[in-house]
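To start, one record:
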Amino acid sequence: MKEIELRIKISDQELTVKKLVQKLLKNGYTEIKDYHQVDTYYKRKGLEDEQDIVGSFIYRIREQNRHGENVVLATRKQTIKEGIWKENEILLFDSHDQKSVEFIKRIFEDGYSSIMIIDKERKELKKKNITLNIDKIIDLGLFIEAEILTEVENPSDEILEKLREELGSFDSQIISKGYVQLMREKNDNINS
């Protein structure tokens, strides 16, 4: 089984997180969790501008709050091909100790550069082999991130069509780029 990540940019201004959740619950999804996540991304010094290419990797420190429960996770994401990443993740702390978080960030900054912070509210839903995250990202917008366990080599069109059936017609754009790449593109457009 492979894990494929697929993002759908929700452009329909009428679709809110609440409306999306309601539609998904009616279609057999179960609401699992909701979080506030602040992700700090790191790249090796000298490779800060490296794009999301095969073999590249990025580290992430995630500070996550769920109803007062705080955890800090560290992740290494390696690009296998566009839209497909291999992730290794560990729990660093199961309580929010800001001094410890800052210490870990300082260790990273000795060999890596902090390239970006992504702040989002996330609702997680699940149905069989599909986990859907509805992400409201500061400065980027509303997205549905689908994590699919599948044997199918390129399931993007199949999954998008299934989601369209379940959510009804909505103005959307399928995206195989990660949030870091999307934020970089947005920032580049603003600066040019």
